[in-house]
Design brief:
mainly alpha; single chain; 115 residues
Length: 115
């Protein structure tokens, strides 16, 4: 996989995060510009996995923390503020609030999810 494909797998949580990060280590940290764009649908997909019991809150936290520090993943400019706020909340459950089923559904609604 090339870097863009690995990043796409990361934002879509197609494989375990650590596996993808290990593969991404073959590339320089700095990319100069975003190679892919995170959309509300990406976060909604991850939150649905949490709501459906496929992943735990710690996995969501790890995913959000990983996404928000990467300069090779940009934020959809139309939804940038909401994406930044939701990523911050998910990555920092002890600063904001722990992820629960109720808060996950609230965040999905904030991002335009219908569930």
């Amino acid at each position: 996989m090339d870097r863009t494909e690995l990043l796409q797998s990361l934002v879509e949580m197609q494989k375990p995060i650590l596996e993808l990060l290990d593969q991404l280590h073959q590339f320089d940290w700095d990319s100069g510009e975003p190679l892919i764009t995170l959309t509300p649908q990406h976060i909604i997909l991850v939150l649905k996995k949490y709501v459906d019991g496929q992943i735990g809150s710690s996995t969501v936290q790890e995913w959000a923390d990983t996404i928000h520090i990467r300069d090779d993943i940009g934020l959809d400019p139309v939804h940038e503020n909401n994406l930044r706020d939701v990523l911050h909340e998910l990555a920092n459950p002890f600063l904001v609030q722990p992820l629960t089923l109720l808060s996950a559904k609230r965040l999905m609604a904030k991002l335009g999810g219908n569930d």
